[in-house]
Amino acid sequence: MSAQLNRVIAHMDLDCFFVSVSRLLHPELNNKPVIVGGGERGVVAACSYETRKFGAHSAMPIKQAKRLCPEAIIVRGDYDAYSSHSDMVHEIICESVPLYERSSIDEFYLDLTGMDRFFGCYKHATELRQRIIRETGLPISFGMSANKTVSKIATDEAKPNNQMQVDCGEEKIFLAPLSVRKIPMVGEKTYTLLRSMGVEKVKTVQEMPVELMERVLGENGTTIWKKANGIDTTAVEPYHEQKSMSTKKLLSRTLLTCNACSTSSLL
Ligand SMILES: [Mg+2]
Questions:
Q1: Which sequence positions are flagged as catalytic?
Q2: 142 alpha carbon – ligand 1 mean position (Å)
Q3: Domain with 28 in it: what CATH number?
Q4: Which residue among 39, 48, 87, 146 is least enclosed by CB atoms within 10 Å?
């Protein structure tokens, strides 16, 4: 456990990645409501903040998103451009951080543990983020804490195009007021179940006995309870040990997830 307390992990996530790359290539899309997706019958692969305001979100059928936000501009995904821009960001991170994990086409976990001996970890991550923005033109956010879960949630809270740090020991306080939906493992089904139990905020899970969570949700319940309490000992998986994580594979995995979500939400 003491090893976990000493870790410093940053989660970096490009903001509305597909939309941002499409805007770089087509600046006329700036500040406009944009939906990236494959044709009228497809699902939304990504949408800009201007479109999300109307309730549209990724994995939603494009038709439905268009109904919510009729002025949205539909853009066909340029997946070669997404791959090459993801690689550009990857190269910068690879040059700057010895231990990192590429967890999706637009997300990275950086293990900065020990780097504070030379310079501040937060300063290092801040400069890295600025460099990525400067050299690629893409907005990116990061969250930093002692573990992967808290950092990922912190990134989400920092967005868009911003950064934040959760100090060691402050994890529970940071998580308490947030919706349980913010815990990465909590999907639609689990959220509905927790809501039916009267659980809305992470604070409530923090106050529940772990046995109750386990009885209701099995092993997942225990993991969710730990995450809610800011406990996560999973390691940053070194990139060179990640199996066949080519950009193309990451991309198709991202798109598959989109389609799977939309299928299950349609059922
Ligand atoms: Mg992203």
A1: 107
A2: 10
A3: 3.40.1170.60
A4: 39
Q: Which domain holds residue 199?
A: 173-228
Segments in the chain forming alpha helices (H): 2-5, 17-25, 49-52, 62-68, 79-96, 121-136, 148-158, 171-175, 188-196, 202-207, 210-217, 219-228, 247-266
Rounded to the nearest angstrom, the distance between the alpha carbon of 167 and the centre of ligand 1 is 23
pLDDT tens for 158-196 read 999 999 999 999 999 999 999 999 999 999 999 999 999
CB–CB of 230/147 below 8 Å? yes
- Cα(100)–Cα(171) distance, integer angstroms: 22
To 5 degrees, how large is the angle CA 183–CA 175–CA 212?
65
User: Last residue of some domain: 126, 147, 170?
Assistant: 170
Q: Which phi and psi angles does 139 have, rounded to 5°?
A: -70, 140
Q: How far apart are CA 31 and CA 49, in angstroms?
A: 9
This prediction has a pTM of 0.89
Is there a contact between 65 and 44 (Cβ–Cβ < 8 Å)?
yes
Q: Residue 14's beta-bridge partner residues?
A: 140
- In total, how many domains does the chain have? 3
> What's the gap in Å between 15 CA and the centre of ligand 1?
5
Question: Is residue 117 packed enough to be buried (19+ CB in 10 Å), middle (13-18) or exposed (0-12)?
Answer: exposed
- C-beta separation of 25 from 81 below 8 A: yes
